[in-house]
TrEMBL record:
<feature type="transmembrane region" description="Helical">
    <location>
        <begin position="46"/>
        <end position="68"/>
    </location>
</feature>
<dbReference type="Pfam" id="PF07690">
    <property type="entry name" value="MFS_1"/>
</dbReference>
<feature type="transmembrane region" description="Helical">
    <location>
        <begin position="212"/>
        <end position="234"/>
    </location>
</feature>
<feature type="transmembrane region" description="Helical">
    <location>
        <begin position="171"/>
        <end position="191"/>
    </location>
</feature>
<keyword id="KW-0472">Membrane</keyword>
<keyword id="KW-0812">Transmembrane</keyword>
<dbReference type="InterPro" id="IPR020846">
    <property type="entry name" value="MFS_dom"/>
</dbReference>
<feature type="transmembrane region" description="Helical">
    <location>
        <begin position="240"/>
        <end position="260"/>
    </location>
</feature>
<dbReference type="GO" id="GO:0022857">
    <property type="term" value="F:transmembrane transporter activity"/>
</dbReference>
<dbReference type="InterPro" id="IPR011701">
    <property type="entry name" value="MFS"/>
</dbReference>
<feature type="transmembrane region" description="Helical">
    <location>
        <begin position="365"/>
        <end position="383"/>
    </location>
</feature>
<protein>
    <submittedName>
        <fullName>Putative membrane protein</fullName>
    </submittedName>
</protein>
<feature type="transmembrane region" description="Helical">
    <location>
        <begin position="80"/>
        <end position="100"/>
    </location>
</feature>
<feature type="transmembrane region" description="Helical">
    <location>
        <begin position="142"/>
        <end position="165"/>
    </location>
</feature>
<feature type="transmembrane region" description="Helical">
    <location>
        <begin position="106"/>
        <end position="130"/>
    </location>
</feature>
<feature type="domain" description="Major facilitator superfamily (MFS) profile">
    <location>
        <begin position="1"/>
        <end position="386"/>
    </location>
</feature>
<dbReference type="InterPro" id="IPR036259">
    <property type="entry name" value="MFS_trans_sf"/>
</dbReference>
Amino acid sequence: MIARLSASKRGLTIAALGTSQTVGWASSYYIPAVLAVPMADSFGLSPVWVFGAFSMALVVSAIVGPWAGARIDGFGGRGVLMLSNIVFALGLCLLAAAPVPAVLYLGWAVVGFGMGIGLYEAGFATLAGIYGKDARGPITGITLIAGFASTLGWPLSGIMLATWGWREACLGWALIHLLVALPLNAWLPSGNEALPKPATPEPVGPPPSRRALWLLAFVFAAAWFNATAMAAHLPGLLQAAGASTAVAIAAGALIGPAQVAARVLEFGLLQRFHPLVSTRLAAAAHPVAAVALIGFGGPAAYVFALLHGAGNGIMTIAKGTLPLSLFGPAGYGQRLGWLNAPARVSQAAAPLIFGAALTGWGVNAVWLTAGIGMAALLALLILKRS
């Protein structure tokens, strides 16, 4: 069954799920950068309040992630992913119709629920249900496609904002969920082809050690703290290092291509190595970039952006492939939800914490993220292959 699915539908499955993931990321994680200010202005609020609502959405996603993973483990991922499109559309419609800030916060909470059941963790768990231990390639494939979520999402949100307004932009994304992403997720295989069947149960090995689970949860939390801190403050950090505004913006624009290039490398050359190897390389990238920035200042802005982006690109894949390789497909979805819950919380806190460090320490704030990255690398060195 698995081999037949891999031969006939593998490419189409990756394309469909990658496209629906692109819509999910573009309409949730990436809309505050474009819509937060006009949202806040319409209510007479500071944009901080909207970013606070987005942080709340990330916490909500962390809470519901393990539940969604358990559902995917038991019944496959297609139904959960389809539900996520409906939930996303509902949350976006609440944002669009919000008459007061309280309803705006409610809308973000619903969007957060959609993120918890519809973004990468759910997509990875769905692929593990379809392909079992052979899901590494498909996981990398959907991240290659969804890696362009900001590249496509930010301009599209900007066009809808300029043409109609922020409320209509939210409605536009809701329609895209219902008309594009929902049918694509409905077309997917059920997502339980590789799950053990009661009639022919697969051998069950010993449960993962608590130490290994905690180490991996810390690695993901550290990686996503750094990624979110850089997403929020990279231009300011590079300018503090001596780069001009134009150089800082140009260097920031390299992060997306660097992520995709690193994922192509993972899809090809690094496939022959254990995921632990590529994850260790990814964890080392940001500390090395930080040393270059501190040592050479503004001229190292491009090097910093390329190294950070490449490490972040591979680490995104590692969120799915490393737990699968270390612990196997049994109980994968729920385990992935628990492993990534701390990462969602660290994402919510990162912009505030790193922003305060940047204000107080200037370019030396990068030692904070470099130290966190080194701690993650140490944790990965302690982890052993299954």
